[in-house]
Specification:
With about 300 residues, this protein is of the alpha/beta class. The protein has one domain: HUPs (Rossmann fold, 3-Layer(aba) Sandwich). The protein is built from eleven helices and ten strands. The longest helix has 19 residues. Bound molecules: iron/sulfur cluster and zinc ion (2 copies).
C-alpha cells in the first residue's frame, strides 16, 4: 500500500501525474482548496465587499467553483447565474440539479430561460448557416447574457468555472490558427474596459478538469450526468482529447508548463497590444467592436426564421 505523500499516514488514492505526488482524499481536498485560494490571491481576483456572480451551468467545474468559493469565503456576497439554453432534456436536467444545490448552499440564484424570455433556444440556430458551429454561437450567446445580467445586477466580478484544460486548449488553438488577438485576451482575470462590461475571473484556471471532477465527486456535489446533445464534433473536446491522450501521456507537465510559460513569457508582450475600439450596439446598447453586437446579429437572424 502506498501512503499519502502529504500526511504519510493514510493510503494514497490520487496520483497527480504533473507533480508525481500521491495523496489521500483528505489531503487532496485540502490541496485543492489551498491552490484555488493561492490563485485568487495571486491575481487579486476578489476584494472585500465585492458582489461576485458565479456562472453555474450544472457541470462539475462550476459546481466545484461555487462550492469552494462559499467554503473559502463564507461571508462573500455570492450570487449564482444560470442560463437555461432550451436544449432538449439537457437544459432542464441541469436546471433542476442546480436549483436544489444552490438553495442548499444558501446562495441566491438568478435564472434566465432563453426560450421563455427571448422566444428561441440554441436549437433554433441549427437551421441557420451557423449550424455547424453551434458551440461557438452558444458561447457568444452565453458570454453576452452573462455579462448583461451581471451588469444589470450590479455585480462587480463574474466568476466562471474555466479550468486549466479549457485554457490550454484555447492557447493551443490560437497557436494553430495564429490567432494573436484571441491569444492576447487569455488571462486569469479580464478587467472591465467599458462601463457596461463586468470584469471576469477564472479562480479554477490552475486546476485540471480531472481535479475538479475529483473534488466534486469526493464531496458528493450534485452535477449533471447528461452530455449536451449538440456537443458532437465540438472542436474544443477533440483538441482536449488530443492533448490529454497524446501529449500529456508523454509530457505530464505539458498543460501546467504551457499556461505558466504563456503567463510569464508571452502575456507581458500583450500589455501594449492595441485594444479594439468599443462602441455601443445600436439595438441593445451593450458594448461591441462593431455598430451591431454579435448577439443582436445572431438573434435577429434566428428571430426572422422563427417568424417566417
Ligand atoms: S456543448 Fe456546445 S451547444 Fe452544448 S452547451 Fe456547450 S457550448 Fe452550448
Ligand atoms: Zn494524506
Ligand atoms: Zn446588441
Amino acid at each position: 500500500m502506498r501512503l499519502c505523500h502529504a500526511c504519510l499516514s493514510k493510503p494514497a488514492e490520487i496520483f497527480l501525474d504533473y507533480s508525481q505526488r500521491r495523496l489521500c482524499i483528505d489531503c487532496f481536498l485540502k490541496y485543492y482548496e489551498k491552490k484555488v485560494k493561492q490563485t485568487i490571491d495571486k491575481y487579486r481576483m476578489i476584494k472585500v465587499g465585492e458582489k461576485i456572480g458565479v456562472a453555474v451551468s450544472g457541470g462539475k467545474d462550476s459546481t466545484a467553483l461555487i462550492y469552494v468559493l462559499k467554503k473559502l469565503y463564507p461571508s462573500l456576497n455570492l450570487v449564482g447565474i444560470h442560463l437555461n439554453l432550451g436544449i432538449k432534456e439537457y437544459s432542464n436536467h441541469c436546471n433542476e440539479i442546480l436549483r436544489e444545490f444552490i438553495k442548499k448552499l444558501n446562495i441566491p440564484l438568478i435564472e434566465f430561460n432563453l426560450l421563455k424570455q427571448l422566444g428561441f433556444s440554441i436549437h433554433d440556430f441549427e437551421g441557420t448557416e451557423h449550424g455547424k458551429k453551434i458551440c461557438s454561437i452558444c458561447g457568444t450567446i452565453k458570454r453576452y447574457l452573462l455579462n448583461k445580467i451581471a451588469y444589470e445586477e450590479r455585480i462587480n466580478k463574474l466568476a466562471t468555472g474555466h479550468n486549466l484544460d479549457d485554457i490550454v486548449e484555447v492557447i493551443f488553438n490560437c497557436y494553430l490558427q495564429g490567432d494573436v488577438t484571441q491569444l492576447s485576451r487569455i488571462s486569469p482575470i479580464t478587467p472591465a474596459n467599458h462601463p457596461k462590461l463586468v470584469a471576469r475571473i477564472k479562480p479554477l484556471c490552475m486546476m485540471t478538469e480531472m481535479e475538479n471532477l475529483l473534488y466534486a465527486s469526493y464531496l458528493e456535489l450534485p452535477f449533471r450526468s447528461l452530455s449536451c446533445p449538440l456537443s458532437k464534433g465540438n472542436r474544443s473536446l477533440k483538441q482536449k482529447r488530443l492533448i490529454n491522450e497524446k501529449i500529456v501521456q508523454e509530457i505530464p507537465t505539458f498543460k501546467h508548463m504551457l499556461f505558466k510559460s504563456y503567463l510569464k513569457r508571452i502575456a507581458p508582450y500583450f500589455k501594449t497590444y492595441p485594444n479594439v475600439e468599443i462602441f455601443e450596439c445600436k439595438y441593445c446598447g451593450m458594448p461591441t467592436s462593431k455598430d451591431v453586437c454579435a448577439f443582436c446579429r445572431l438573434t435577429q437572424r434566428v428571430k426572422k426564421l422563427i417568424v417566417e
